[in-house]
Amino acid sequence: MLIDGDYVDSVAFDLIVNFERMLGRRIPNADMARWIDCIALDGGLRAMEAGAEPRETQVIFLHSKDSEGLRHFTPGRYDSELNAMAFSDSLGEFVLSAFPVEAVVSRDDFFVDVLHTVCNHKDVRRVMVVPDACNAALCESIRRTLRDVSDDKRVTLFAMQPMAGGNYRQEILGYSLMNALGIRGEELGEQ
């Protein structure tokens, strides 16, 4: 998983503000492990069968150098709660890393370079990408990067609305975030 931490935190904030107003209740921070599980499931991972080989999923957060963490996720601090941490559940082990974007490279170039590296790694079979979908130039660079990815890799891109096609599957980011924020579908029907 390759995640733009600043972008996903901003989307979580927007959802919290809008749903608090719409549902008339406080929306807590998103549960990080629950959100990662939702992204994994949307990206095609399934529960491991008994006796199966252990599965490890890398979760990489890229973020601005000034950002100390995801303010709308629990846990959310990059240095003490996310970076070099892991958790296991029925989907396998998730190993988290957080990397700030340094001034040496542009944010977009860093994201695309990491994506390219991940997609070209021989042991990677699934790639789940949460880019800043509001950045048209970045999205075009991602489309170009994913154009040549081997068909034996399943790539899923997460955004708040469908994007122009490419060599990848798409999922709506808001669904996984709503789940992690504790917003239930039946609450929406009551409105």
List the helices and strands and how they pair.
Layout: E1 2-4, H1 5-23, E2 30-31, H2 32-42, E3 56-64, E4 73-74, H3 78-82, E5 85-89, E6 92-101, H4 107-120, E7 126-130, H5 136-147, E8 154-159, E9 169-172, H6 173-180, H7 185-189
Helix pairs in contact: 2-6, 4-5
Commentary on this structure:
This protein has helices at 5-23, 32-42, 78-82, 107-120, 136-147, 173-180, 185-189, and strands at 2-4, 30-31, 56-64, 73-74, 85-89, 92-101, 126-130, 154-159, 169-172. With 191 residues, the chain is of the alpha/beta class. The chain is built from seven helices and nine strands. A hairpin with a 2-residue loop joins strand 5 and strand 6 (92-101). The strands form two sheets. It has a seven-stranded mixed beta sheet, with helices on both faces. Helix 4 runs parallel beside helix 5. The mean pLDDT is 94. The termini are far apart. The protein is globular, with a radius of gyration of 16 Å.
| Average pLDDT reading | 94
Q: Give the % helix.
A: 25-40%
Radius of gyration: 16 Å
List the uncertain runs: none
Order of SSEs:
EHEHEEHEEHEHEEHH
How much of the sequence is in beta strands?
15-25%
Structural class: alpha/beta
What is the CA–CA distance across the termini? 34 Å
| DSSP helical segment count | 7
Major sheet: 7 strands, mixed
Number of DSSP strands?
Answer: 9
What is the strand arrangement across the widest sheet? 5-6-3-1-7-8-9
Shape: globular
